Amino acid sequence: MVISAVTALGTVVAVFIYSETLKENKRQRLEKYIPYLFIDRASFFVQGIPYEDFAVPRIWTDEALKFEDFYTAMDDGTSSRYYLKLYNLGFGIAKNVEVIYYYDIEDFVKRIIEIGLKVPEDMRVEITLTTNRISFSSKIKKLPFFNSSIPRDYKMENSFDYLIPITISDKHYLLDLPLSFMELFNVYMFYVGYQLGREPVRINPPIVTITATYENIANKECKQSFTLTVDLNRPFGGGTYGGQLIIAEGI
Asked: What are the helix (H) ranges across the chain?
């Protein structure tokens, strides 16, 4: 009877050890297929619309547009669309991907209004923030900011059903830059461009945080954070400016 009890206990222990070994082997196999997201730094070029003896920055692109392409891009009345490149550098598929931008929009608008006080009143762009929208208005009808309005959260979130690793498919995914950021930055640089040559101007772009959440093939939720900073390395002139969007992992 004692021998039977010991044998039964040994069997239970053996089954438990076998079960735990299987779980560990499964965990190790799944770890080999963990996704890893990467957002590449990007060069940008903003072209302007001529107005009297200066120009108003408007269209965001990754390179200078030809004359006809520039005015085609102007047809939508906004800064068009600008994309970052998102990669999955890991070895597993990322599912249900949500990428969310954040920057202190209220603080940025406040700084734009402050710098705008040094611009002639008839050239100022009035910015109105509501819960859902950002509105722009100007006394000069030729300015692109004249009586326009955009959704406040447009492209502040980007969603993807899945991201395939580049080890399987050598491709990247397009990540929209928020429209509000581009529009407000254009007004900011419009004011900066007016003041350059008249007095020293300290250019202080806002810092943008990016949070990506997703699931791996084991349905485990993963999270990565990034910081986006603007490096203005192309001199402002003729309503144009440019530089690089620097992406660093972590906040």
From this structure: 2-31, 67-73, 105-116, 179-195
Whole-number pLDDT of residue 23: 47
| Those residues with Cβ within 8 angstroms of residue 162's Cβ, 6 or more apart along the chain or in another chain | 93, 94, 95, 96, 97
* Alpha helical stretches, state H, 32-89: 67-73
> What DSSP state is assigned to residue 162?
E
Assess contact for 53 and 153: CB atoms under 8 A.
no
The residue with tokens 């050239």 is: 123
- If 0-12 CB within 10 Å is exposed, 13-18 middle and 19+ buried, where does residue 55 land? middle
Q: How many CA atoms lie within 13 A of 37 on its CB side?
A: 31
- pTM of the entire predicted model: 0.81
Q: How many residues does the structure list for the chain?
A: 251
**Strand, helix or coil for residue 219:** coil
pLDDT at 67: 44
Distance CA 44, CA 55 (A): 18
Dist. CA 127–CA 138, nearest whole Å: 9
